[in-house]
Amino acid sequence: MLNLSELMPDVLYAFSYRNVEPGTYVYHDHTFLELSIMLEGYSDYNVEGRWRRVDTGQALLFNPGVHHQETQPPASQSLQLHVGFRHVALPGQTPDHLPFADSLVNLGSLRPEFMACAQRVVTESQRPAELGHAVLLQALVVELLCLLLRALPENPVSSDYLALQSETPDKEHVALVSAATYYLEAHYGEDLTLSDLATSLHVSPAYLSRTFKGVQGESPINYLTKLRMRRAKDLLLKDQLAVGEVARAVGYQDPYYFSKLFKRYFGIAPSLIDKGDT
Prior knowledge:
42% of the residues lie in helices and 19% in strands.
């Protein structure tokens, strides 16, 4: 079973759009994930050269690099919700990739619950100035993703997910990764390298990296970076600390490098974090 305890996507946008004019949009792809949910009406989608009719109550998931375009047929209209998000890392999966082999997701019996959540996303997307908007919007997108993944057994899955299911990590590997994550949680404020971590655990860096990724779904250094970014954001929101102080507190001696990394991760410079937006 997938572990979703670290599912905290960065929501890039969430908006609804009513299309009443016939026409075809540009064939394109994204560097992030996108959900397109048909709330009313229907539209035609070309996904990697295959045209599909998408009706009310259906959802499309586009992994990064999946080309798609929409056509609104004559004498028709549609109301759709589009959600762009990133920084999703599931165990054993490529970062920012969900294990659906087909972009048109079969929601099965979860459709009513999924669509009700989508309507709540639409409502919240129209209240950007309200207190806690970003937090609540992220929570609703997490709910959408959890429902989407609950529908996974009803859908064809990607080959890397099948490989993950056929390889259950043994207890020794799980214990090693648990020890590594515990060490990273305790020492993220220090100048750590993969070699430092491996030495503390009495294994080789290559073995640690391979084992960690097999169990956790990402490398130890990626895990450490995510951990540092989360801790940095917490400090910026809750404490009156300068960016340089926060950088050093989470293990970065160069504030400029820290700021570039933070902006790449959250889409906003650390100096622009609103300390009242908790």
